């Protein structure tokens, strides 16, 4: 009997268009889930969902950090995987 895998992470990088990650651990979580999919391992990823996303950051000419909020609509990225 094959088991099922649930992967819990505070952030998961699935796509640049889904700003639900800010760095290394989110990227690692996304890579882990993609690898499970590539190997046909039944898995589900569970994460927090931030409607405001994370901040885009840049530095100005003086070296000061500037943060830009990222607004996105989660429903624009949903798929009905249960549809016949």
List keywords for this structure.
single chain, 84 residues, alpha+beta, two-stranded parallel sheet, 1 helix
Structural features, described:
With 84 residues, this protein is of the alpha+beta class. The chain has one domain (5-77). 18% of the residues lie in helices and 21% in strands. It is built from one helix and four strands, in the order βαβββ. It has one helix at residues 24-38, and strands at residues 5-8, 43-46, 55-59, 65-69. A two-stranded parallel sheet has the order 1-2. It has a two-stranded antiparallel sheet with strand order 3-4. The radius of gyration is 16 Å and the shape is elongated. The two termini are 26 Å apart. The relative contact order is 0.22. The mean pLDDT is 85.
Task: Provide a quick synopsis of the model.
With 84 residues, the chain is an alpha+beta fold. It contains one helix and four strands, in the order βαβββ. β3 and β4 form a beta hairpin.
Q: Look at the helices and sheets and give the structural class.
A: alpha+beta
Q: Alpha-carbon distance between the termini?
A: 26 Å
Tell the overall outline: elongated
Strand portion: 15-25%
Say how many strands there are: 4
Helix content: 10-25%
Biggest β-sheet description:
2 strands, parallel
Figure out the total of helices: 1
Secondary structure blueprint with pairings:
Elements: E1 5-8, H1 24-38, E2 43-46, E3 55-59, E4 65-69
Parallel strand pairs: 1-2
Antiparallel strand pairs: 3-4
